[in-house]
Amino acid sequence: MIRIKYTAVIEVFKTYLKTKSQLSESEVDTIIAAGHIKKVRKRQYLLQEGDVWKYNCFVLKGCLRTYSVDEKGNEHIIHFALENWWAGDRASYESGGTSLYNIDALEDSEVFLIAKPVFEKLCKEIPALNDFVNALLHRSFIAVQNRIHTNISSSAEEKYKRFVEQYPQMLTRIPQGMIASYLGITKETLSRIRNQTSKDR
Amino acid sequence: MIRIKYTAVIEVFKTYLKTKSQLSESEVDTIIAAGHIKKVRKRQYLLQEGDVWKYNCFVLKGCLRTYSVDEKGNEHIIHFALENWWAGDRASYESGGTSLYNIDALEDSEVFLIAKPVFEKLCKEIPALNDFVNALLHRSFIAVQNRIHTNISSSAEEKYKRFVEQYPQMLTRIPQGMIASYLGITKETLSRIRNQTSKDR
DNA sequence: CGATTCTTTGAAAACAGTCAATCTGTGTGG
DNA sequence: CCACACAGATTGACTGTTTTCAAAGAATCG
Fold first, then answer.
1. Residue B184 CB closer than 7 angstroms to strand D?
2. Residues in chain B within 8 Å Cβ distance of A145
């Protein structure tokens, strides 16, 4: 059996839209024609603090992180985005103001970008897209709220355990220190937790 | 000059919709006709863990909290809703599954409820309502994300300070112990922080 | 290999939680 | 009106968790 070994990376987005939304084939094509692929090398910024975020960004390949840097130089990661995830700064996008966050790539990545005005136009023209974006936003909200709940009710160890359950794919691709940052604990604490739990067995 | 001393409590919702949305007078009336007012006494539940949440709930008067109770019996408050705020459990609402949360009143309150199927129908019929709900959801998402950011990047004291800045109205109406719970710290710690900061002056 | 990045470890200090007792204010019923 | 109960806030002593700082140990990559 002959298999096509190389799948154009944009297919990731096509497949995503086809399986997750009610969009027709031609609507999917319209959406894809409205944006463009951007390659982001490891350590390269997609957004820097002070910039304005004007895109919808879907990760086709690789891994991005969204984070802030405080006065002491500590990074605080609020979001990871692997393939099939969205990234961006919604606050800046909505308000048009400058961003407090940085987004950069943890691996060589490829993302699909659609500029805000273009995307808004599409949402108006394609009801199924509008519905999809809404449903997505609902799910995102619920996810962030769950994260709040875990955050205010759990110890460092519990937070890590839940992270492992919820995002096992991330464990292998994201450096431990960054997971610690995402959880709001130090890398040293996370290291000790992991060591601890492996001894317990 | 003669003034009407008593404003029907539903006016709170009318005013809210008129000032915050693009809805026409008649659309506002349609929406109001689609729901009903419910009085909730202090300590009374509006939702209990295990129930399914099927409403959109706008607070006309009083104050509600959404919280979970863990194995040890500790309460973890994820949301407060004063007048002009929405309350509810979006996860249960969207999925139709049972809720992990309780909602109860901290004061004698009045809320405006619109059942899910009715509300969904309204959203389809009234584009301005749909747009408004979306914009609201966007803002909510951004707010929760900011809360995450504060949570993972701040000490107990900083969290409290930000809470005070952001929600000064709540300080006078919500017991301190509950604010502590919302922040993910103990009531004793919050008490000491407050004492500490007042000495510092 | 050398350089860089990431992780681990140790010891001390800071921070926050626990438990129990006390204090304060409020509202209720006798 | 007082006494009492109750909810909420405070305080102290103690414990436990997490951070900090510094150093050393893996792992990765060109």
1. no
2. 78, 90-91, 144
C-alpha A23/C-alpha B144 separation (Å) is 29
H or E element at residue B112: strand B109-115
Residue type, A146: N
Amino acid identity, position A149: H
* Long-range contacts formed by A121-124: CB under 8 A, 24+ apart: A122/A30, A122/A31, A122/A34
Per-residue pLDDT tens digits for A92-117: 999 999 999 999 999 999 999 999 99
- Asked if A159 contacts A151 with a C-beta cutoff of 8 angstroms, the reply is yes
Chain B environment of A78 (Cβ under 8 Å): 145, 148-149, 152
Alpha helices in chain A (DSSP H): 11-20, 25-33, 90-95, 116-125, 127-153, 156-166, 168-171, 176-183, 187-200
**Cβ burial, residue B195 (10 Å; 0-12/13-18/19+):** exposed
H or E segment and range at residue A111: strand A109-115
Write phi, then psi, for A39 (nearest 5 degrees).
-90, 135
Judge whether B178 is closer than 8 Å to chain A, CB to CB: no
Query: To the nearest whole number, what is the mean pLDDT of chain A?
Result: 95
pLDDT at A5 over 70: no
- Its pTM stands at 0.94
All residues at 6 or more sequence positions from A78 whose CB lies less than 8 Å from its CB, including other chains: A66, A67, A68, A101, A182, B145, B148, B149, B152
pLDDT digits (tens, 9 = 90+) for A18-50: 999 999 999 999 999 999 999 999 999 999 999
Identify the sign of the CA torsion B135, B137, B141, B143: positive
Which helix (H) or strand (E) segment is B129 a member of?
helix B127-153
**If we measure between CA atoms, which residue out of B31, B66, B120 comes closest to residue A142?**
B66
